[in-house]
Amino acid sequence: MKIGKVILSIIIIAVVFTAGLYIARKVCHATEIQSLTKKLNLSQEQLKEFNLLEMQYNADIKLLCNELQGEREQLNILIQTSKDLNNKTILNCLNRINVNQSKQQRVTVQYMLNIKKILDPDQQKIFFSVVSEELCSKCKRMGDEKCFCGKCE
Predict the structure, then answer these.
(1) How far apart, in whole angstroms, are the C-alpha atoms of residue 73 and residue 116?
(2) In whole angstroms, how far apart are CA 7 and each of 1, 13, 17, 76?
């Protein structure tokens, strides 16, 4: 029973985290991208490459998010009709959710590496500084406004 509670807690955290990131990205994305490209002072060629990378990334993530949403809906139905977490169908669905979230992380890391390739060293420092600031500001929004990363306080 303890294993079931631990797995369920992990699922809830992962679902909330992923959904929160996706929603936040959709709401603030255009403004953040404009601000980022301005801070980076991209050349026309860099801006063109950046926009192509951004379009591809968004398409890849959208596809994965749509697949993930279907799995979450399936999981919700399974939870309603099952009595315990050890149900093989639930565990298979959880596994598919984990695989999808892992794919999203890999796509995001590749996207960041591709952006890094088009930036000069000074722009890379700015880019990763902005990423770090964003991660810290988001950690405060998860819960009761306390810092989780240890860098915000």
Answers:
(1) 36
(2) 10, 10, 15, 15
Query: Residues of 100-126 as b/e, b for ≥16 C-beta within 10 angstroms?
Result: bbebbeebeeebeebbeebbeeebeee
Which tens digit of pLDDT belongs to each residue from 81-128? 888 877 888 899 999 999 999 999 999 999 999 999 999 999 999 988
Question: DSSP string covering 30-96, please?
Answer: HHHHHHHHHHHT--HHHHHHHHHHHHHHHHHHHHHHHHHHHHHHHHHHHHHH-S-TT-HHHHHHHHH
Given a contact cutoff of 8 angstroms between Cβ atoms, the answer to whether 99 and 80 are in contact is no
- Model pLDDT for residues 44-56, shown as the tens digit of each residue: 999 999 999 999 9
Q: Tell me the backbone φ, ψ of residue 20, rounded to 5 degrees.
A: -60, -45
Q: Whole-prediction pTM value?
A: 0.69
